[in-house]
Amino acid sequence: MNSSWKLLAVRGIDIRIHITFPLILVFAAMSYGQVGGRDGALFGVVSVLLLFVLVTLHELGHSFAALHYGIPVRQIVLLPIGGLAQLERMPEKPQQELVVAAAGPAVNVVLAVVMGLVAWLLNIPLLGGVQDFSLTFTALFSFLLLYNVILALFNLLPAFPLDGGRMLRALLAMWLRYDRATAVAVNIGRVVAVIMAFWAIRNGALFMGLIALFIFVTGSQELAATRWQSRLRRSGYGHMVREVFSPVVGALGPYDSLRQALAERMRGWQSDFPVADDGRYIGFVTEDGLLRAANLYGPDALIYAAMSPDVRPVSLQTDLLDAVGQMARLRVWALPVVEYGRLLGMITYRQIQEFIRTTPGFPHEDSPRIVRA
């Protein structure tokens, strides 16, 4: 099931809106409607939509900087708590990560300067958007100017994985080992997240609480993944998918229903399924995607309703470290193995763990857990 809808593409980067995005519009309508009635509710919806235009420009700043260093950008997803530019991989050098992380807030700083100049020339009050909830140019412009500055300052907080936290990690990585720099940045981010959570609880700020939870959980996950990957690299990691994957896998057909997929899942030996037509790879269905699609569309819908657009197949020559990175990034437990459009099998997180435990020379410390969304 697609969890987001495509709005447009910029330089080959899909800009998508998550299915939960309307929640922020409902929240804005209710919040501003309590103060300004129907006009206030309408102002809340329009102003937040315009604010997310700024969020998109912010994420495009990250994306263009990543493209400059040859890092592919899969997509930008707009969520109720902000935007997320999904890169195929992280920059290899601390200097590159610093530039990519700083590029987003830099866009907001430039916008703030330009908008501030326009406000000065047109004599627009800077706080008009928090005092006047009418759908006028003055009110909307002052709202966007104020919250654009807030967006820049908030993202510069040293709370990993916010931009400020990533910039801090990049600066530390110039002198410390990458995993150690990540640990310092994540621990600072945890402290900031706890402070934000207490403030959110005391003031009933729901979305601030969600952002605090996102900072704490995402930072912890990336720290675990970074530590494991660092140990693997130090162990001479260079094994490929072909050494681990299973060619014996249960595949679904394009005309199978969700009911049939659920029946296969209930048999218990496989929870994620590639979809193929006479050996030709079509798509991939995760367990979570299957359950969500069944709840949304009913068990008689075709399997297409559950296929994930984010999961990309790996080849036999893909490094295991890259496969693990994709699983961790997407929070999935398996990936399809495909060569020249033909389905060859599937590689699972459990298989990789077992391979690492039984291969001489590999580290035996605890590996990071992939937490389901």
Write a structural description.
It is built from ten helices and eight strands. It has 373 residues and is α+β, with helices and mostly antiparallel strands. The longest helix has 47 residues, at 22-68. It has three domains: 1-156, no CATH class; 158-231, no CATH class; 241-358, CBS-domain (Roll). Helix 4 (163-173) runs antiparallel to helix 5 and helix 5 packs antiparallel against helix 6 (206-234). Helix 1 links the parallel strand 2 and strand 3 (73-79).
Can you summarize the main beta sheet? 4 strands, mixed
Radius of gyration: 23 Å
Order of helices and strands: EEHEEHHHHHHEEHHEEH
Percent of residues in helices comes to: 40-55%
How do the strands and helices of this protein lay out in sequence?
Layout: E1 4-10, E2 13-18, H1 22-68, E3 73-79, E4 82-87, H2 94-122, H3 137-155, H4 163-173, H5 178-203, H6 206-234, H7 258-266, E5 273-277, E6 280-285, H8 287-297, H9 320-330, E7 334-339, E8 342-348, H10 349-358
Parallel strand pairs: 2-3
Antiparallel strand pairs: 1-2, 3-4, 5-6, 7-8
Helix pairs in contact: 1-2, 1-3, 2-3, 2-4, 4-5, 5-6, 7-8
